[in-house]
Design a protein that fits this description.
415 residues; alpha/beta; two-stranded antiparallel ribbon; 14 strands; 46% helix
């Protein structure tokens, strides 16, 4: 097979050729195209006959609809946006397919886990997700400052922001599985705050002092928004000072209200209006009238959260933390990261039905709608479905048909 034929074949697998080919043909008079066909993704790398200039590059990428609008605004008018998070242990084809399906269904965000030893590397996958969507905003949920040098992370996001037309957002935390499988601890909240500040400056194209060396990404612009994940008072206060959004891994309105108290304190200390900070509740879901089945599909999730709760118990006095967050880990045994985020994992044997019902969303479609309204009342602006419990395509179909329209209609009525 000729190299150009292989390139077209691979592009057809992951990119909408009906939109990319006219743009490539239009550029053929000025560029000599070289096919790059490394599986599973191929792209056309164009070598200019004469040096290109910035405007022509912008015009070229503007002709590729699947790269999305240039630096779009977030959705407006909806009381709550919806996202999905994928665990990259599935095939590349399914990651692309689920991302496309989610955007078509009306989801606003596509996130992906970052645990580079346990699962596939997220950044090539985010490139594919960007190339196969038009409007969906994309990012990590979550990365951390320690697994990659922060200049690498900043360069990755700045590059992906150009590829996607400004749709990238950084989700970042102190680190869990990606650190622990290497025998290392999460970073401190102070290290996290410093890394976020450096990330912002670098992705804006500003010069910073990095390990004593003046450092700048001269080509970077349009810094991505930053979401910070956390549970403890110190991290939440820090998020209130510096974050565009916070990531809370549970769907418990009461615990979310407790967390937001610290976010507001941090915002006030930085003279920020806390109402401008986005609030994400992230959790798995299962729509079924059979609660027994539904609970078993998501029971792994409170076990995941327990890793962070155990850390909190070591760092804070009992009276500083709500029993609704800490009491359920008392009977927790060891945690096997080889079965991290795994349905029916033995890691979750200690998790009760009551905790499952608080941390996740299970039950009928009506039960989902009711709990989502409670999350809105608690201050949540995005609900992020951890789409990794099995039957993912069907879950997207049910949410498209029975859940999302309710909140879209609410938004239309409020405008």
């Amino acid at each position: 097979m000729a190299s150009s034929t292989r390139a077209a074949f691979c592009l057809g697998r992951f990119c909408p050729t009906t939109s990319i080919l006219p743009a490539l043909i239009a550029m053929s008079a000025k560029y000599v195209s070289v096919a790059v066909t490394t599986f599973p993704f191929a792209m056309i790398v164009s070598k200019p006959i004469c040096p290109p200039f910035r405007r022509s590059e912008q015009e070229f990428y503007a002709k590729l609809p699947h790269f999305g609008p240039a630096f779009p605004e977030k959705s407006k008018g909806s009381p709550m946006e919806f996202g999905i998070t994928l665990k990259p242990d599935i095939s590349v084809e399914r990651i692309v397919g689920l991302t496309r399906q989610a955007e078509s269904a009306g989801f606003h965000y596509g996130w992906i886990f970052d645990s580079h030893v346990l699962w596939k590397e997220p950044y090539p996958l985010l490139t594919l997700m960007a190339a196969n969507t038009q409007r969906m905003r994309l990012g990590t949920c979550v990365t951390n400052p320690a697994v990659r040098d922060m200049t690498v992370t900043a360069s990755l996001f700045a590059t992906l922001n150009l590829i996607s037309g400004g749709r990238m957002e950084l989700g970042i935390g102190r680190g869990d599985s990606s650190r622990r499988v290497l025998g290392k601890k999460p970073v401190t909240w102070a290290q996290l705050e410093d890394s976020v500040k450096k990330f912002r400056e670098l992705t804006a194209g500003h010069e910073i002092e990095y390990d004593g060396q003046p450092t700048r990404l001269t080509w970077a612009e349009h810094p991505p928004r930053v979401w910070i994940a956390g549970y403890g008072p110190k991290v939440l206060q820090m998020a209130g000072r510096v974050a565009d959004g916070i990531i809370l891994q549970f769907a418990d309105p009461d615990l979310i209200a407790w967390c937001l108290g610290f976010v507001k304190e941090g915002a006030r200390s930085a003279k920020r209006d806390w109402r401008g900070i986005e609030v994400m509740a992230a959790a798995p879901v299962w729509v079924s009238d059979d609660l027994g089945v539904a609970r078993e599909r998501v029971r792994w999730f409170p076990a995941l959260v327990s890793n962070h709760v155990v850390d909190l118990i070591r760092q804070y006095k009992p009276e500083d933390l709500p029993p609704a967050l800490t009491s359920y880990v008392q009977n927790r045994a060891s945690y096997d990261y080889l079965h991290h985020c795994e349905v029916e994992s033995s890691n979750a044997n200690f998790v009760s039905d009551e905790v499952v019902d608080r941390f996740c969303i299970v039950g009928s479609a009506q039960a989902h709608r009711e709990k989502l309204r409670k999350l809105i009342d608690a201050g949540v602006t995005q609900f992020n479905v951890y789409l990794m419990c099995g039957e993912e395509e069907q879950t997207l179909e049910v949410y498209q048909r029975e859940i999302l329209p309710t909140f879209q209609e609410t938004a239309s009525a409020s405008r």
